[in-house]
């Protein structure tokens, strides 16, 4: 059954964002975050184009969205399975997939990037798409740790650029950090704030400071858990149990690192440590580096601190 239209819908005129209301969204990066955001945006009546580098990856994104929608529907439509199935079909119809980023931005009110946590790669992508996207398309990044100002600097639309930081798993996590730089216009910021609300999320306003709010507090905590283990002061299992049962976290720090992706965790901490090398909060972890070198990125590869196969 063809759930997804495999091409960009034709017949759209260029994006004409009306009264700052975002309806058409192009998401670049169909990994765990991009697929999750696509699902939530499509579930709330937005038209979504999900872009990645290959059809195979996009097939995996589609499978992930379908799986997650089934879990949502199991609860939301517990006693109405037919309505649940209809909901899934409607949501999936709102999502197109594409490997052509340039074509996919033509009708976008919002271009939201969720690709690898690497400044140069993000700058190259935005710089390229800045030349192709309609002038009024708002650009936003889902970066965990990079300055929005640095990413935006690769474009000529500094007033129409902001941060939209979602949390993993996107369908379950209620928060969105909306990040304004010194050049983000109030109109753009309001559009991003209202878009987050339209997704059913609770937005908070953030300054463009390292880690915004959540990660500025979460990253040092998680890295200290890794170092505590490396000092021989606790097994990863005991640290995870302790933080779940003693501090009320739904996942322990090792479980959460695996859930986020150890490659992403390493990108974040290496970036911060390069900028602030003497800050002990941002010191790296040998164990993390070893696992990443072995290609053990956590849940997404089947092994990280724990095994998932
Ligand atoms: C060192 C540096 C690190 C920093 C990294 C920063 C990264 C980033 O920038 C910020 C973040 O995101 S930070 C990360 C922020 N994130 C966190 O901190 C997350 C912390 N973890 C949690 O909040 C919970 O463990 C979960 C909600 C993930 C799972 O809940 P649970 O109770 O432990 O386990 P359960 O029994 O499996 O699931 C129960 C029900 O949840 C539902 N459901 C779950 N996943 C779903 C999905 N994908 N779709 C749809 N539904 C989904 C489903 O209904 C399921 O019921 P089912 O009938 O069994 O299908
Ligand atoms: N994982 C998390 O918990 C989490 C939470 C919030 C924010 N983030 C941020 O979101 C972004 C994505 O993280 P993720 O966990 O989804 O990563 P991921 O590895 O699951 O997915 C990234 C996707 O981007 C694709 N990609 C890479 N370069 C591309 C390009 N030039 N064009 C199109 N697609 C490209 C990859 O093929 C991959 O499918 C990162 O900036 C990360 O810091 C991650």
UniProtKB/TrEMBL annotation:
Residues of the 3-hydroxyacyl-CoA dehydrogenase C-terminal domain: 211-308
Record-given protein name: Hydroxyacyl-coenzyme A dehydrogenase, mitochondrial
Highest rank taxon of the organism: Eukaryota
Catalytic activity entry: (3S)-3-hydroxybutanoyl-CoA + NAD(+) = acetoacetyl-CoA + NADH + H(+); (3S)-hydroxydecanoyl-CoA + NAD(+) = 3-oxodecanoyl-CoA + NADH + H(+); (3S)-hydroxyhexadecanoyl-CoA + NAD(+) = 3-oxohexadecanoyl-CoA + NADH + H(+); a (3S)-3-hydroxyacyl-CoA + NAD(+) = a 3-oxoacyl-CoA + NADH + H(+)
Coarse class of the protein's main subcellular location: mitochondrion
Family: Belongs to the 3-hydroxyacyl-CoA dehydrogenase family.
Molecular function per GO: (3S)-3-hydroxyacyl-CoA dehydrogenase (NAD+) activity; NAD+ binding
EC number of this enzyme: 1.1.1.35
GO biological process: cell differentiation; fatty acid beta-oxidation; spermatogenesis
Localization per record: Mitochondrion matrix
Annotated site (Important for catalytic activity): 165
Pathway connected to this protein: Lipid metabolism; fatty acid beta-oxidation
Subunit relationships: Homodimer. Interacts with GLUD1; this interaction inhibits the activation of glutamate dehydrogenase 1 (GLUD1).
Keywords: Acetylation, Differentiation, Fatty acid metabolism, Hydroxylation, Lipid metabolism, Mitochondrion, NAD, Oxidoreductase, Spermatogenesis, Transit peptide
Pfam families the record matches: 3HCDH, 3HCDH_N
Function: Mitochondrial fatty acid beta-oxidation enzyme that catalyzes the third step of the beta-oxidation cycle for medium and short-chain 3-hydroxy fatty acyl-CoAs (C4 to C10). Plays a role in the control of insulin secretion by inhibiting the activation of glutamate dehydrogenase 1 (GLUD1), an enzyme that has an important role in regulating amino acid-induced insulin secretion. Plays a role in the maintenance of normal spermatogenesis through the reduction of fatty acid accumulation in the testes.
Binding site for NAD(+): 29-34, 52, 117, 122, 144, 168, 300
Annotated Gene3D superfamilies: N-(1-d-carboxylethyl)-l-norvaline Dehydrogenase, domain 2, NAD(P)-binding Rossmann-like Domain
Keyword Cell wall biogenesis/degradation found: no
């Amino acid at each position: 059954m063809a759930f997804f239209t495999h091409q960009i819908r034709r017949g759209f005129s260029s994006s004409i964002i009306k009264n700052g209301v975002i309806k058409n969204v192009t998401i670049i990066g169909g990994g765990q975050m991009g697929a999750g955001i696509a699902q939530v945006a499509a579930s709330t009546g937005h038209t979504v184009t999900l872009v990645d580098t290959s059809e195979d990856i996009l097939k995996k994104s589609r499978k992930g969205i379908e799986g997650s929608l089934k879990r949502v529907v199991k609860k939301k439509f517990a006693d109405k399975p037919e309505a649940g199935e209809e909901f899934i079909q409607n949501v999936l119809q709102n999502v197109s997939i594409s490997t052509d980023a340039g074509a996919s931005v033509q009708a976008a009110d919002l271009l939201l990037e969720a690709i690898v946590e690497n400044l140069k790669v993000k700058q190259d992508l935005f710089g390229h798409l800045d030349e192709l996207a309609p002038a009024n398309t708002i650009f936003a990044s889902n970066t965990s740790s990079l300055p929005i100002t640095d990413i935006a600097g690769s474009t000529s639309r500094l007033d129409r650029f902001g941060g939209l930081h979602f949390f993993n798993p996107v369908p379950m996590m209620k928060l969105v950090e909306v990040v304004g730089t010194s050049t983000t216009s109030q109109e753009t910021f309001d559009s991003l704030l209202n878009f987050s609300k339209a997704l059913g999320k609770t937005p908070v306003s953030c300054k463009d400071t390292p880690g915004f709010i959540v990660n500025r507090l979460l990253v040092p905590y998680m890295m200290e858990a890794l170092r505590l283990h490396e000092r021989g002061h606790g097994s990863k299992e005991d640290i995870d149990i302790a933080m779940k049962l003693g501090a009320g976290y739904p996942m322990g720090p090792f479980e959460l690192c695996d859930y986020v992706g150890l490659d992403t965790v390493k990108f974040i901490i290496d970036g911060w440590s390069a900028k602030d090398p003497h800050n002990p909060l941002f010191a790296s972890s040998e164990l993390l580096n070893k696992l990443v070198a072995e290609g053990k990125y956590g849940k997404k590869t089947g092994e990280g601190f724990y095994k998932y196969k």
